[in-house]
Amino acid sequence: MTPQDQPIERHTISVLVDNEPGVLARVIGLFSGRGYNIESLTVAEVDIERRRSRITLVTSGTRMIVEQIKAQLARLVPIHKVSDLTDQGPAVERELALVKVTTDSNRDNRIESLRIADIFRARVVDSTVNSFTFEVTGSSGKLDAFIGLMRPLGLSDIARTGVAAMARGHKGLLQLD
Amino acid sequence: MSERKLTGAQLLLRALRDQGVDVIFGYPGGAVLPIYDAIFGQNAIRHILVRHEQAAVHAAEGYARSTGRVGVVLVTSGPGSTNAVTGLTDALMDSIPVVCITGQVPTHLIGNDAFQECDTTGITRPCTKHNYLVKDVNAVARTVHEAFYVARSGRPGPVVIDMPKDVQFAEGDYVSPEDVVHRTYKPQTHPHKDAVAAAVEVIAHAKKPIFYTGGGVINAGPGACRLLRELVRLSGYPCTSTLMGLGAFPAGDPHFLGMVGMHGTYESNLAMYNCDVMVNIGARFDDRVTGKLSEFSPNSVKVHVDIDPSSINKNVRVDHAIIGDAGITMAEMLEAWKMRGYQPDREALAAWWAEINAWRARDCLRFHQDMAPDAVIKPQYAIKRLAELTAEHKDVYITTEVGQHQMWAAQFIPFSEPHRWMTSGGLGTMGYGLPAAMGVQIAHPDALVIDVAGESSIMMNIQELSTIAQYRLPVKVFITNNQWMGMVRQWQELLHGERYSESYMESLPDFVKLAESFGATGLRATKVSEVDDTIREMMSIEGPVIVDMHVDRKENCFPMIPGGAAHYDMILGPDDRGEQRTSEEGMVLV
Q1: What chain B residue is nearest to A72 in terms of C-alpha separation?
Q2: How high is the ipTM of this complex?
Q3: Which of B117, B138, B429, B507 has the fewest CB atoms lying closer than 10 Å?
Q4: Which of B121, B184, B317 sits opposite A3 (nearest CB)?
Q5: How far is CA B266 from the centre of its chain?
């Protein structure tokens, strides 16, 4: 099997970086410059004392490409650690979404949307007489399903955070160095 | 360390001095005036004024490649830094350690579209190994030390330090190099013992082995080159090299098969195709080397030694990956080989060499030079004679521009030592050779430094003749003049139906008069009987010389693997055209 014929795999990668100007641009520039995919990317400072941020990104490619992505990331100077959560065994992956449903005066849609929200353990975080805004967390698949069900009920806005992920088990990325 | 306060500009120069810098290639401008003021007030570091910022970077590359040290560049903001981009990209592609200091508009003006402002860190992010914007004067010294560390460690490369003008004026504290430890960047130089042992086991049992070596061996230093020689001698295996690696292994050694790749030798490429064990040391399976990937050395077990993990399995899937410095890894390979008492399979090896020698007998670099006194000069002959006549000079450095002459220089000039050959490999930058030669000559004032050039390439940085004149650099420019962009013309002939679109070089200067106008000597040869005398005269002149060697205008560079073809599909010469071999797919490749 030639490398081009390998199946496409989806990987969630955690990257611990120095929180310095331009570090996100380096990561994103690497992906655009080398033609890799980014399906989702989240970033925030996680270690204020040592000024470190965690970037969680979901990407897809053949095995060879995914290995390349990890090697290229590790090569960037301000990067501490690259961890492939998909390869390292089970990981928890969570995403948060804010979903607005504008029901106007349709009473059935209002009730149905609350019922679905209940099933998905979504919370109402804002409400008007003709709309609800829900907060829902879970796997990306769960969020997709929730949004899909809300669509016919008057879905009018979506904001998603992208995936935050962490390996299961006792080992932590921040402890590793 | 609390001494008297220094300005940002003074801190920069002190840090450079503590990094062992003795020369800077640069060009002043508004945003670096405080640094130039600081340069004016000291004598430890010499400044070489170039005529274009691109040339400053190439000169620093020439300096770096011929010495193994970090080259240093200083340019102003805006156009100064954008002009440097080609040089930086060249250094990145060829893994050359360069630190480039760029001026920047004052901090409070950044982002305001100020005069001569550009987003230098944004523009240079993809064409440097790393870059910095220094906003705090107290970070100047630490940043310089970090930049030198990053530039020379692991796989070397260019690093940019962007310094706003107010930071150059502000006062701050100095930090010594020994007080700076990099937090994150610690490349692995020592290979895993098990990986080395497993690879050596495979190498020792090979029946049709080949060493495929690249610029990584040169970058690993003269010690690494000695170890490569020992490894080849111990095993008796054949050795080929990429364009970047020439000189790491002596070209005169019978184990050397010549260069590999698109214009490499028949024997190297066929040995690569037919080998059963390929040992790649410090090369990166570049597309100029592999040709058609799906037919690249299909039956070999591949060992790859590289200091950059991202080079492993990038283009070609390998069986034994060893991450480490080429020198350290080869030392461990030799140790493992001797400890286990391996003996190469003499019988298999003799059969392999017989096969290789049969390919060698094709004499793929042959060309026909008519020796009648008035005959037209073949470019290969001119370069071959250049190599032969300069061989008596013990201290020769060769740089090149890019194109046919570059490939002929690689084919016909035998290098026996590293750091003697400076050429733009990865980026293929026309205009590289002349400024690179300046940098080499600055580092080696008494050496014979020759830029093997084409008449088209030389025009790209011809302004540097002025720098050469100013510093009385005795650089020799050896132009093989065919009045064409030769490599473009060759591709148009072979692949585009002889439609020579825009590849003819019209309105060229009279190179002899051009040389004279810059205070250099111009020499011209137009027939074969003049070649030797012209080269001897060039060597006898102490100052700079431009040689305008009029060569056969239609000569093509062979052997050649057309784009997208496999190693066995070489065109050996003008009579070996056969059927149209280049597929549509191949033509898309450059």
Answers
A1: B310
A2: 0.89
A3: B507
A4: B317
A5: 23
- Give tens-digit pLDDT for B47-89: 999 999 999 999 999 999 999 999 999 999 999 999 999 999 9
| Contact across the interface for A78 and B313, Cβ inside 8 Å | no
Q: Where are the domains of chain A?
A: 3-84, 92-164
CB neighbour class for B286 (10 Å; exposed up to 12, middle 13-18, buried from 19): buried
Q: Distance from A177 to chain B by nearest Cα, in Å?
A: 10
pLDDT in tens, B190-248: 999 999 999 999 999 999 999 999 999 999 999 999 999 999 999 999 999 999 999 99
Q: Which residues of chain B does CATH 3.40.50.970 include? A: 6-179, 379-550
Q: What CATH fold (topology level) applies to the domain B379-550?
A: Rossmann fold (3.40.50)
pLDDT at A1 over 60: no
CB contact under 8 A, A77 and B122: no
Q: Report how far Cα B147 is from the mean position of its chain's Cα atoms.
A: 21
Fold of the domain built from segment(s) A3-84: Alpha-Beta Plaits (3.30.70)
- CA of B89 to nearest chain A CA: how many angstroms apart? 14
Q: What is the pLDDT of residues B179-198, one digit of tens each?
A: 999 988 999 999 999 999 99
d(CA A108, CA A113): 8
Mutation test of the interface with chain B: which of A50, A53, A75, A177, choosing the one with the most B Cβ atoms within 10 A?
Answer: A75
Identical fold at A3-84 and A92-164?
Answer: yes
Q: CA gyration radius for chain A? A: 19
| From the candidate CATH numbers 3.30.70.1150, 3.40.1740.10, 3.40.640.10, 3.90.180.10, the one assigned to the domain spanning A92-164 | 3.30.70.1150
The residues of A whose Cβ lies within 8 A of any Cβ of B are 2-3, 18, 21-22, 25-26, 29, 33, 64, 67-68, 71-72, 74-80
Dump pLDDT digits (tens) for A49-99: 999 999 999 999 999 999 999 999 999 999 999 999 999 989 999 999 999
Fold held by B6-179: Rossmann fold (3.40.50)
> Could you give the residue range(s) of every CATH 3.40.50.1220 domain in chain B?
193-360
